[in-house]
Write a structure and sequence with these properties.
By secondary structure, this protein is mainly alpha-helical. Helix content is 80%, strand content 0%. It has nine helices and no strands. The protein has helices at residues 10-17, 23-69, 74-109, 112-115, 122-157, 166-169, 173-194, 197-217, 228-257. The radius of gyration is 22 Å and the shape is globular. 32% of the residues are buried.
Length: 259
């Protein structure tokens, strides 16, 4: 049998013109490639959730003592503030460690060429991967945000803070999940743009912190809505739109930059 010899570059073009791989096939490949992330992120969040549940049981007992004696445990409040700080940085950590390598690592190692010569169009491949991993990160973050909201509620009830406080508003499940999604997409886009994991991590941190500061100091004061839930919904909506735009940009970069 005579082997078919193709000119340089024809293999990839032929593959892109061939029948597209079904979405479920691309999702399976994404799982195979990213299973370490898809397992490790839930494990870390589950461990943190268990810690919050254990601490939350104690906090609720102390809150009962507050109602009876007016003496809230200062150690509980210090722990709650520390956990709230960690909640502020959790989305960008998800982006840095889960989002930045997702495409940059393939570009660094050259393994993207294997994926894109198996009948996978570059844009479809990027969209499928980012849609799966981004949604996964957002849902996990939202669930964890619900656990944190349960843990933190006694401090709100005691009047130590309120849900309209920026540092608390950020941690509510709807917005927390949306920020995790945005951080992931910022990181993935940075990885495709820079083609290197470590620079993409650094850029993600800078962009996320800048966006977070801009939102807290300026944007929230100019929302065309009032009230806690309308503001949560509005912030979630524009973060989702931003994330979708970043997916489109990343997919276009994949076609132009990864040749």
């Amino acid at each position: 049998m005579t082997a078919l010899i193709l000119p340089p570059g024809a293999g990839a073009d032929t593959a892109e013109r061939s029948s597209p791989v079904p979405w479920h096939g691309m999702l399976w490949v994404t799982w195979r490639q990213q299973r370490a992330t898809l397992v490790s992120v839930p494990v870390v969040l589950a461990a943190a959730a268990v810690l919050l549940v254990i601490a939350g049981v104690r906090v609720r007992a102390d809150y009962g003592n507050l109602i009876l004696r007016g003496d809230f445990n200062n150690g509980d409040w210090a722990f709650a503030q520390a956990m709230d700080f960690l909640m502020q940085v959790a989305p960008v950590l998800i982006g840095i460690f889960a989002g930045a390598p997702v495409l940059a690592r393939e570009l660094e190692s050259g393994t993207f060429r294997y994926a894109w010569t198996q009948g996978l169009r570059r844009e479809r491949w990027v969209i499928a991967k980012l849609a799966l991993l981004g949604a996964f990160s957002a849902v996990l973050a939202g669930v964890f945000g619900e656990v944190f909201a349960w843990f933190f509620q006694p401090f709100i009830s005691a009047g130590d803070t309120s849900v309209t406080n920026g540092l608390v508003f950020d941690t509510r499940p709807v917005v927390f999940g949306a920020w995790a999604l945005a951080a992931f997409m910022i990181a993935a886009c940075s990885g495709m743009l820079l083609r290197r994991t470590l620079p993409a991590m650094a850029v993600t941190l800078g962009v996320y912190l800048g966006l977070s500061l801009l939102t807290g100091s300026f944007l929230r004061g100019h929302y065309p809505v009032s009230g806690f839930w309308p503001a949560q919904s509005f912030e979630c909506a524009w973060l989702v739109v931003l994330s979708a735009a970043l997916i489109v940009v990343t997919a276009r970069l994949a076609r132009r930059r990864a040749a």
